[in-house]
Amino acid sequence: MTPTPTIFAPLFIAATALFVWSCWKRLSLTALGRPEERLDNIGQRIGDTLSYAFAQKRVLAKPSGLIHVAIFWCFLVLMIANTEFLLHGLFPAVNFTRLPDGIFMPLMQMIDVVSLITLLAVTAAAIRRLVAPPYPEARTFEAFFILFLIATLMLANFGVNAAKISRMQGSTLVLAESIMPISSWFAPYVPSGAGKLVHDLSWWTHALVLLLFMNLLPLSKHFHIITAIPNVFLRRREHPPLPEREEFSAGNSFGINRVDGYTWKELLDAFSCTECGRCQMACPADQTGKPLNPRRVIAQLKHNLMANGPLLKQGQPAGTPLIGEGDASISEEAIWACTTCGACLQSCPVFIEQMPKLIPLRRHLVEMESKFPEELLNLFENMEGRSNPWGIAPTERGKWASQLGDRPYEPGKSEYLFYVGCAGSFDARAKQITVATALLLDKAGVSWGMLGKDEKCCGDSLRRLGNEYVFDKLAKENVALFKERGIRKVIVQCPHCLTTLKNDYRQYGIELEVIHHSQLLLYLVQDGRLKLPKQADLGKLVYHDSCYLGRHNNIYDEPREALALATGAEPLEMPRNREDGFCCGAGGGRMWMEEFTGDRINLVRAAEALEQQPDTICTACPYCLTMLDDGIKDLKAEKVQVKDIAEVMAEAVLR
C-alpha cells in the first residue's frame, strides 16, 4: 500500500489525540499534590539538566549505563528523522532531499549510522536483561516488548532506505551508498522488482510501530522518557533533604496517609521512575532481605495515585490506603525498615526522592495513630522526659570530663562549644572517643567549653523516626539556649548531631558553624597546632564511611587524610565506599530498633570490612562504631579492633 496522507493523517491525528489525552490524564494527577517551589536558581537548574539529563552523569556511574546513554542520544538524533517521517506522511512534499547537499548528505549519514547503533544498543539491553538483569523482576514482557518495538523501527527504517537504493543506478547509487552505508548493506537483499512493495511495507511498519510506541509511553514505565528531564530540572537543590516543619495546633493532622498529602513534585517522581533498580541495589534494607524496596515504594505511590486520583479529584475519599499491604500501598514494615542512609537518593539517575517520602508516613503512624515498633516506646519516653535515649539523668552528662576539670562554655571566652552528644556523654565506649577528642583539643590549644547538664539531645533520631512533636520541642529549647549563650561555632563528633545542628536547625532560625571532629583534627595538624611525634601503629586499617558524614554532608576526604597523617599510610578502602558506601544500619533511628527480618545490616558491613583482612576498622561516628563493634564480635573476629578517628589520632599525638 502506497503511503498517502488521506490514510495516514486520520491515524496520526487519532494517535496524537490519544497520546495527549493519556499524558494529561496522568500528569494532571500531580495537581492533587500540595504546592512547592521548585523554580528557583534557574541557571543552576539548567546546568544540572545538561549535566545529569543530557550528559547522563549518574547513568554513566555504572558500566551498564553506556547502553542507556547510547539509546538516549540516538533517540534524540532520531527524533529529527521521525519528525521528517511524520511530516512527510502528512505532507509528501516535505522531505530531507529539499535540504542543501551540505546538510542533507551528512544528516542522512548520521541517521543511518545512529540507527545501527540503536539496533546494537537495544540488542545489548535485551541480552543484559536475559543474562544479567539489574534485579530479578527486570525480566518483564513490557521491557522486552519496548526493546522489540525500537528494534523494529530501526529495521523498518533500513528497509525503506534499502528499497530506495535497490532501484538506483550509476552515480546516484554510488552517492546513496556513501551517505547511507548501513542501509546499503540491506539493499542487495531486496528482491528484484519488489522494491516498491518492500518500501511500502517498511514505511507502514515504521508508521504503525511509531504511533503504537508513542501511545505505549504514558501507559508504561517508559513514560519517564517524557518526565525524566523535567524531573531532573525540578530536582531538590537542598542537601541533605530535610523534613518539613509541622505546625502543632488544634485540629491539624500530622504526617501523610493519603497520596494527595505529598507535593506535586513528589507525585511527579512517581511518573519519572525508570525502574533501573539502582536505588534497590544500593538500599541496605533491600539488600539484607527487608521488605523495603525504594524502587517498589515509588511504583506503589504511582499505583496509589492512579487508583485514588480520580476519586480525590471528585472530592471523594481515597479507596486504596497509602499505608497498608498490596501493590498500591506501602507496608508499615517497609516504612520502618529505612535507615535514611540516602543511598537511594545518591544512586537515582533522575533524582527521585525515595527516602524523604517515608518520613511523613512515619509521622502519621507516630503522631496520629501511635503505631510504631514496641522498642521505640522507651526511646520516646526517655527523650521526652530526660532528653536522651537512655533516660539517664542530665546531671550525668558531663561526668566523662571529671579528669579534665570543670569546662563550661563561657560566652565571649570560649571559641567553640564542644557539643558532646548523647552517645559521647552516656555510652561507655563512646565516652572514650569524647575524652580523646577533648585531650587533642587541649593539646592544640583550642578554646572550648561544654554545656554539661544543660546539653540536650539534638533530636536526630526523633525526627527521622517521625516523632516531630518531641523533636520540635527539643530543637526550640536548644536553639533558644544557643542564642542565649551566643554560641556560633560548634564541634561535634557525631555525624547525626552535625546534620541536625548544621542543617535542620536552620529551619528554626539559627545558622551555626558546625565542624566534625575529623575535619578539625586534620586542620589542626595541617596548621601545626597538633604535632605528630610518632605514627599510630594499628596495622592494616580500613575506613568505613558514615552515611550522615559522607552522603549527607559530603565529608569524605578529611577523615582519610587525617588517618593517613596519623598512621603514615592511606587507609584501606572497602569495595563499597565514599558515595557508594554501605550503611552500618543505625541511621533513621534504627540504632534503637531490632532487625527481625533478613540479615543484620551491621553484620553484612562488618563482614565486608573483614574481607580486607584489617587489623583495625576506623569510623568517624559513634553509631557506626557501636554497630561495627557488635558485628565484629558476632562474627568472632575479636582480634580486629574498631576505633574512632580521634582515638587513632590520639595514638600518634598523646602516647
Automatic annotation (TrEMBL):
<dbReference type="Pfam" id="PF02754">
    <property type="entry name" value="CCG"/>
</dbReference>
<protein>
    <recommendedName>
        <fullName>4Fe-4S ferredoxin-type domain-containing protein</fullName>
    </recommendedName>
</protein>
<keyword id="KW-0408">Iron</keyword>
<feature type="transmembrane region" description="Helical">
    <location>
        <begin position="107"/>
        <end position="131"/>
    </location>
</feature>
<dbReference type="GO" id="GO:0005886">
    <property type="term" value="C:plasma membrane"/>
</dbReference>
<dbReference type="InterPro" id="IPR017900">
    <property type="entry name" value="4Fe4S_Fe_S_CS"/>
</dbReference>
<keyword id="KW-0411">Iron-sulfur</keyword>
<dbReference type="GO" id="GO:0051539">
    <property type="term" value="F:4 iron, 4 sulfur cluster binding"/>
</dbReference>
<dbReference type="InterPro" id="IPR051460">
    <property type="entry name" value="HdrC_iron-sulfur_subunit"/>
</dbReference>
<dbReference type="Pfam" id="PF13187">
    <property type="entry name" value="Fer4_9"/>
</dbReference>
<dbReference type="InterPro" id="IPR036197">
    <property type="entry name" value="NarG-like_sf"/>
</dbReference>
<keyword id="KW-1133">Transmembrane helix</keyword>
<keyword id="KW-0004">4Fe-4S</keyword>
<keyword id="KW-0472">Membrane</keyword>
<keyword id="KW-0560">Oxidoreductase</keyword>
<feature type="transmembrane region" description="Helical">
    <location>
        <begin position="6"/>
        <end position="24"/>
    </location>
</feature>
<dbReference type="GO" id="GO:0016491">
    <property type="term" value="F:oxidoreductase activity"/>
</dbReference>
<feature type="transmembrane region" description="Helical">
    <location>
        <begin position="143"/>
        <end position="163"/>
    </location>
</feature>
<dbReference type="InterPro" id="IPR017896">
    <property type="entry name" value="4Fe4S_Fe-S-bd"/>
</dbReference>
<keyword id="KW-0812">Transmembrane</keyword>
<dbReference type="GO" id="GO:0046872">
    <property type="term" value="F:metal ion binding"/>
</dbReference>
<feature type="domain" description="4Fe-4S ferredoxin-type">
    <location>
        <begin position="264"/>
        <end position="293"/>
    </location>
</feature>
<dbReference type="InterPro" id="IPR004017">
    <property type="entry name" value="Cys_rich_dom"/>
</dbReference>
<dbReference type="InterPro" id="IPR009051">
    <property type="entry name" value="Helical_ferredxn"/>
</dbReference>
<keyword id="KW-0479">Metal-binding</keyword>
<feature type="domain" description="4Fe-4S ferredoxin-type">
    <location>
        <begin position="326"/>
        <end position="358"/>
    </location>
</feature>
<feature type="transmembrane region" description="Helical">
    <location>
        <begin position="66"/>
        <end position="87"/>
    </location>
</feature>
